[in-house]
Amino acid sequence: MTQYSNEENKTDAAKQAAADAAAKAKQQADAAKATAQEKAEAAKKAAQEKADKMKAGTAGAQDKAKEAQEKAKKAAAEAASKAGEAVHKNRDKIDSTVEKAAQAIDAKTQGKATGVVTKVKDVIAKALDKTEAKRSAGTKVENAAEDVAGKVSEVADDVQGDNRF
Questions:
Q1: In this structure, what DSSP letter does residue 78 have?
Q2: Contact 93/25 with Cβ under 8 angstroms?
């Protein structure tokens, strides 16, 4: 009976760890999203205020409103890019957390929810892919360079650990 209790405790601990990691990832994503929304709203408000002032007959009002709108779009794109970068940098952690949660649910339901869990995992993966795709081209290049550097470092470590060379 003690062994069963230890296994339950380990399962509960794993579930809690997965839930904590998922909550942290969600919190980070929500924070990035909130920042993006705040910037977009602030830029939109600024654009709207400028547009309202210009409606009174200011020369070049349309150009200034268009400029403000472009700034708002740029701020929103920048915020989305930062969110995409955060997802990219933490993708392994996020995917691992989702997988742990899925395994915990499957274990708890004895596989009865496998189909639903798989669908939810697919939806999460697609949402993460879309968010990650919003990184700027420069960020994508930087991330690719970092990824390559990391792989090269891993291979170098493997080669140094292998005494055949």
A1: H
A2: yes
Q: Which range (102-106, 122-126, 131-135) has the least confidence?
A: 131-135
Q: Following DSSP, what letter does each residue of 105-157 receive, concatenated?
A: HHHHHTTTTHHHHHHHHHHHHHHHHHHHHTS-HHHHHHHHHHHHHHHHHHHHH
| Interatomic CA distance for residues 32 and 30, integer angstroms | 5
- Give the Cα separation of 153 and 146 in Å (integer): 10
d(CA 89, CA 1): 43
Q: Would you mind telling me the total number of residues written for the chain in this entry?
A: 165
pLDDT value of position 122 = 94
Each residue of 54-69: pLDDT tens digit? 666 665 667 788 889 9
